[in-house]
């Protein structure tokens, strides 16, 4: 038998020679010993297992690429980024309220934005708005008749499914009935508005990422990469908020409460 003090540090099944002093009398005659894989020292096996597990864990769980807010603020204008993205979500909310109601109201028409010669005005600044009856809205354009084409264009793009009839400088707008088709039309318009503002958020994201790529040599490629990931995460957060608003609005419009 081997003495307890003799360490075994041999891998694999092979023949090894040991000093005669390390052998018993019965073993000295042969002076050889076969060491099997099972005799591999536990400490080495543990070390091997740890190394393997470590490599496996590293492969299965890559290091997270993170950068804290203070570091991010030193690289980009974080307040500007949030303000621009938040503005898109807020504008989507406003458009949902103003332009996607089941029953068009004079209030929604009042605040309809009209672009005239590069400037934006609310319709109530350009016209007198009233109701002839519960089913008809009257828009008197006598003060600014030259803006009638702009007003008609804005009404058509409003998503309110309105079909104005012109008589001189007056527009008559029949309020559509709340039918299933009308509900589905408004729901589609809600999706179109969502896509518009989602793309606006992505555009802000892409603008900042392009700037970060240009700054990579100055701020370091690792930090630039981490910052890009954070910008994308912030954009995803605002788009997720817009997703929820869309889902809620479409349920309302389709009567799926």
Automatic annotation (TrEMBL):
GO terms for biological process: translation. One of its GO terms (cellular component) is mitochondrion. CDD domains: RRF. GO terms for molecular function: ribosomal large subunit binding. Residues 93-254 form the Ribosome recycling factor domain. The keyword NAD does not apply. It holds the Pfam family RRF. It is found in: Cytoplasm. Its main location: cytoplasm. Keywords: Cytoplasm, Protein biosynthesis. SUPFAM superfamilies: Ribosome recycling factor, RRF. Belongs to the RRF family. This is Ribosome-recycling factor, mitochondrial. The lineage of its organism: Eukaryota, Metazoa, Ecdysozoa, Arthropoda, Hexapoda.
């Amino acid at each position: 038998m081997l003495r307890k003090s003799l360490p075994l540090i041999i891998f694999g099944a092979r023949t090894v020679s040991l000093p005669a002093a390390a052998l018993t009398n019965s073993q000295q005659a042969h002076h050889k010993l076969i060491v099997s894989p099972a005799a591999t020292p536990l400490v080495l096996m543990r070390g091997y297992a740890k190394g393997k597990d470590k490599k496996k864990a590293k492969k299965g769980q890559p290091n997270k690429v993170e950068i804290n807010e203070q570091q991010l603020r030193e690289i980009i204008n974080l307040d500007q980024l949030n303000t621009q993205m938040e503005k898109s979500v807020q504008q989507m909310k406003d458009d949902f309220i103003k332009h996607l109601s089941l029953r068009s109201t004079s209030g929604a028409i009042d605040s309809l934005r009209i672009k005239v010669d590069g400037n934006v005005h609310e319709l109530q600044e350009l016209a007198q708005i009233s109701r002839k009856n519960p089913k008809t809205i009257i828009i008197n354009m006598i003060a600014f008749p030259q803006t009638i084409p702009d007003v008609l264009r804005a009404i058509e793009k409003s998503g309110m499914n309105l079909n104005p009839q012109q008589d001189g400088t007056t527009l008559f707008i029949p309020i559509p009935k709340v039918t299933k088709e009308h509900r589905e039309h408004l729901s589609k318009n809600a999706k179109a508005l969502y896509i518009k503002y989602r793309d606006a958020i992505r555009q802000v994201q892409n603008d900042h990422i392009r700037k970060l790529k240009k700054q990579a040599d100055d701020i370091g490629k690792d930090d630039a990469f981490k910052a890009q990931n954070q910008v994308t995460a912030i954009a995803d957060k605002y788009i997720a908020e817009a997703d929820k608003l869309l889902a809620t609005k479409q349920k309302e419009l389709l009567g799926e409460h």
